[in-house]
Amino acid sequence: MTATDPALTALSQGWCALSLLHGKIEAHIERALQSGHGLSVREYSLLDVLSRQHNGPGGHLQMKQVADAVVLSQSATTRLVTRLEDRGLLTRHLCDTDRRGIYTDVTEAGLALLAEARPTNDTALRAALDEAAKNPELAHLVRTVEELKVPARAV
After folding, report:
1. Is 3 exposed, middle or buried (0-12, 13-18, 19+ CB in 10 A)?
2. pTM higher than 0.90 for the full model?
3. Helix, strand or coil for residue 49?
4. How far apart, in Å, are the Cα atoms of 130 and each of 15, 45, 127, 141, 150?
5. Which residues, in sequence order, are bridge partners of residue 106?
6. Which whole number is the average pLDDT over 59-86?
7. Which residues contact 81 (CB under 8 A, 6 or more apart)?
8. Kind and range of the H or E element at 6?
């Protein structure tokens, strides 16, 4: 393929449209979460992922799994956990079966903030998708997102 190959150009344009849609949605949700709850999108995502853990076998995520779930590096995830821990929204503890493992749990305050922020997140997502659907270049991507049948992330 050459740089002017129509297939490559279409692929690049598709990627740009997807990136644009993601950026618009994330910025809209970020503003809503920050102004309403003092949370960033990443902080909300981390609280959401960690709130789905349980105490049964395999119920706690390792930091690598958490990082993958919130789409951050392990070091960035660790810094994010530390910030939320400093705010009293998370706690860390050693794994009972592997003393090298450190798990992170959402505190009652974190669960309360998450419950308070969830409707804001959902409303902002819906509004961002509705706005993006007005753009002919993004409308088909919005429909695709709306038609996805992805099960909720569970541990």
Report:
1. exposed
2. no
3. helix
4. 20, 21, 5, 12, 20
5. 90
6. 91
7. 46, 63, 66, 90, 92, 104
8. helix 6-37
